[in-house]
Amino acid sequence: MTYNELIERVGWGEEFPFQYKEEQYWISQNKEGRYLTKTKGSQTQEFKTTAELFEYGKIDGKKIIEIWDEIKESF
Q1: What is the rounded distance in angstroms from the CA atom of residue 8 to the CA atom of residue 62?
Q2: Which three-class secondary structure state does DSSP give residue 51?
Q3: Are 53 and 27 in contact, with CB atoms under 8 Å apart?
Q4: Which residues, listed in sequence order, are joined to residue 59 by a DSSP beta bridge?
Q5: Each residue of 17-49: pLDDT tens digit?
Q6: Distance in angstroms (rounded) separating the CA atoms of residues 22 and 24
Q7: Domain residues of the chain, as ranges?
Q8: In angstroms, rounded to a whole number, what is the distance separating the alpha carbons of residues 20 and 61?
Q9: Among 37, 40, 54, 71, which residue carries the largest CB count within 10 Å?
């Protein structure tokens, strides 16, 4: 899957678990918004839209696009 395909599929309502630096993360959603959650400690970032999640969501201070090469095999 490409990064743009991930954005598109999240926009359709799909949810994805993935791993980064031996930590588990989850992209999820409900009717109130989109969420980027670090499983350990349940640290959740909340966004109104898919676009906001991919624009403002951060993992270790980096956007998902910035770590894509390291996580793309998880998708």
Answers
A1: 20
A2: helix
A3: yes
A4: 62
A5: 999 999 999 999 999 999 999 998 889 999 999
A6: 7
A7: 3-66
A8: 13
A9: 54
